[in-house]
Amino acid sequence: MGKVDKKPVKEKIVLGLDPGTSVMGYGVILIRGSKMSMLQFGVIQLSKFDSHELRLKKIFERVLSLTDEFHPDEVALEAPFFGKNVQSMLKLGRAQGVAMSAALYRGIPIVEYAPKKVKQSVTGNGNASKEQVAKMLMQLFTIKEAPKLLDATDALAVAVCHHYQNGTEKSRKTSWESFVKENPKRVK
């Protein structure tokens, strides 16, 4: 009898983030071969901090701690959407930038997905509600109870979307290492 060669099963961990200035959602999934499982999801409450600057610092620190705890291979973020309030958009953009910076600081590649793309990937409907997204994820991961804040399931949906897209989204995907290679004169 010949020896049967078993190929090692590939594993990948994806950290999904839904950055916000009051609440930031996060979701961590493990992909082993073709199977996907949820490791953790939740929210970071930021509204208890008085200043916007302190909230940004907390986002940076929490993303660093999540990367240190789970060692994700990739980070997927929900890309900014356009709103009517310029001040709110500016604050949201800062929160997203800080979350991206924390991932890049650890050398983890990042990818952004538009909100419609995330909803489409998870529910089949780009105009799905947050509740519909949460319900689909609850079925997918057999989550018994919906979280109080749907920012958690939104972030989990970003990670799932990234897996379904197989990391091939044509939006921004970079790491500090690739930035240095592409811009040697900008880094000393």
Could you characterize the architecture of this molecule?
The protein contains 6 helices and 6 strands. It is of the alpha/beta class and 188 residues long. The protein has one domain: Ribonuclease H-like superfamily/Ribonuclease H (Nucleotidyltransferase, domain 5). A 6-stranded mixed sheet has the order 3-2-1-4-5-6. Helix 3 crosses helix 5 and helix 4 crosses helix 5. The radius of gyration is 17 Å and the shape is globular. About 4% of the residues have low confidence.
What is this structure's SSE topology?
Elements: E1 11-18, E2 23-32, E3 35-45, H1 52-70, E4 74-78, H2 86-105, E5 110-113, H3 115-123, H4 130-140, H5 151-164, E6 173-174, H6 176-182
Parallel strand pairs: 1-4, 4-5
Antiparallel strand pairs: 1-2, 2-3, 5-6
Helix pairs in contact: 1-2, 3-5, 4-5
The gist of it:
This protein has 188 residues and is of the alpha/beta class.
Characteristic terms for this protein:
188 residues; Nucleotidyltransferase, domain 5; 6 helices; globular
> Oligomeric status of the shown chains?
single chain
Helix content: 40-55%
Contiguous helical run count: 6
Sheet having the most strands? 6 strands, mixed
Distance between the termini: 59 Å
Low-confidence stretches: 168-174
Q: What is the CATH C level class, in words?
A: Alpha Beta
Class by SSE composition: alpha/beta
CATH topology: Nucleotidyltransferase, domain 5
**What order do the strands of the largest sheet run in, or round the barrel if closed?**
3-2-1-4-5-6
Count of DSSP E strands?
A: 6
Identify the overall geometry.
globular
- What order do the SSEs take from the amino end to the carboxyl end, as H and E? EEEHEHEHHHEH
Mean pLDDT: 87
Specify the CATH homologous superfamily.
Ribonuclease H-like superfamily/Ribonuclease H
The name of the CATH architecture is 2-Layer Sandwich
Alpha carbon gyration radius? 17 Å
Beta-strand content bin = 15-25%
The tally of domains stands at: 1
